[in-house]
Automatic annotation (TrEMBL):
Domain of life: Bacteria
InterPro entries with a match to the protein in the record: ATP-NAD_kinase_N, ATP-NAD_kinase_PpnK-typ_C, NAD/diacylglycerol_kinase_sf
Organism: Svornostia abyssi
Protein name: NAD kinase
Length: 298
């Protein structure tokens, strides 16, 4: 017997659900927010609008399909199937959160609040979900393959990211390491470095690039390149500032050898809780990932 198509709805708690979980009751939540000049009614109204949108989305997915709902906090414990269709309902960052756990599954990003969410990755209207599911299942959906970044440790551990990889000290203090790229090598002391994809080029990387005397051309979302930047490099007796920015093409790599005795970390997309620890002498290779985010509707 052929199984029905499978759809996984990924979401995160609303602000109202978060504050209610922390304070226990609606009255306590209202009191807490009132001390900060925030009206609970506004927060609750956004929550109710989201719930209405969520109900419409679930109702528009074909009734014969298998449907699972997944909270962001449970992403690292969920086993995605090869034939899953992923529906992300929420902010752009939620797409980045789920991307690292996928391997070729199509992702439909739905924007439940266009007035508050830019819609860079959640590009679709929730009202279009029925047609989008049908198009994906029939193989006629437009899909954009967005480049991802990978940081691979010399012991085989790996971090994937849709936006950017960060490498440095756990608390963003000065980090010492040796950076190697394109046959060039330099000892450095800095507040860490990032390597961003074209998707991430609209965020942290763009901010760093704008502050440079000589900004570089950042890659586009599907370009097989990463842009890398060293943050606040210090020119000292044993450290230099010659290699502070550039591009990593597909097939090339940026290599970093850690010179921190402790608290060296590497993580992706700002998720510090999902970091890998770096020991002194450990080598990290940062490159374009073999995987791509398959974003529907671009």
């Amino acid at each position: 017997m052929t199984l029905a198509p499978s759809c996984v709805l990924v979401e995160r708690p609303t602000d109202y659900a978060d504050v209610l979980a922390r304070h226990g009751t609606r009255d306590q939540a209202r009191f807490f927010l009132a001390q900060r000049d925030i009206d609970l009614a506004d927060v609750e109204e956004r929550h109710l609008r989201y719930q209405e949108t969520r109900t419409r989305v679930l109702g528009a997915i074909p009734s014969e399909w298998r449907i699972a709902t997944l909270a962001r906090a449970d992403l690292d414990r969920f086993l995605f199937a090869e034939d899953d269709i992923i529906v992300v309902l929420g902010q752009d960052g939620l797409v980045a959160n789920v991307a690292k756990y996928l391997d070729g599954q199509p992702v439909i990003g739905l924007n439940p609040d266009p007035d508050r969410n830019p819609g860079v990755l959640v590009t679709q209207s929730p009202d279009a979900i029925g047609d989008l599911c049908a198009d994906v299942f029939a193989g006629r959906a437009s899909v954009q393959q967005r480049t991802m970044a990978a940081a691979t440790l010399d012991d085989g551990q790996q971090v994937l990211a849709l936006n950017e990889i960060f490498l440095g000290h756990r608390t963003h203090q000065s980090a010492r390491y040796t950076l190697s790229i394109n046959g060039q090598r330099e000892h450095q002391s800095s507040s860490g470095l990032i390597a961003a994809t074209g998707t991430g080029a609209t965020g942290w990387a763009q901010s760093i690039n704008h502050g440079r005397r000589g900004p570089i051309d950042l890659p586009g979302p599907v370009a097989p390149q990463l842009a890398w930047f060293v943050r606040e490099a210090w020119d000292g007796p044993h450290t230099g500032t010659r290699l502070t920015a550039g591009l990593v093409d597909a097939g090339a790599a940026l290599t970093v050898t850690c010179e921190l005795g402790e608290d060296g970390v590497v993580f992706g997309d700002g998720i510090e809780a999902d970091r890998l620890r770096l020991d002194w002498g450990q080598r990290v290779t940062i490159a374009v990932a073999d995987r791509h985010l398959q974003l529907v509707g671009e």
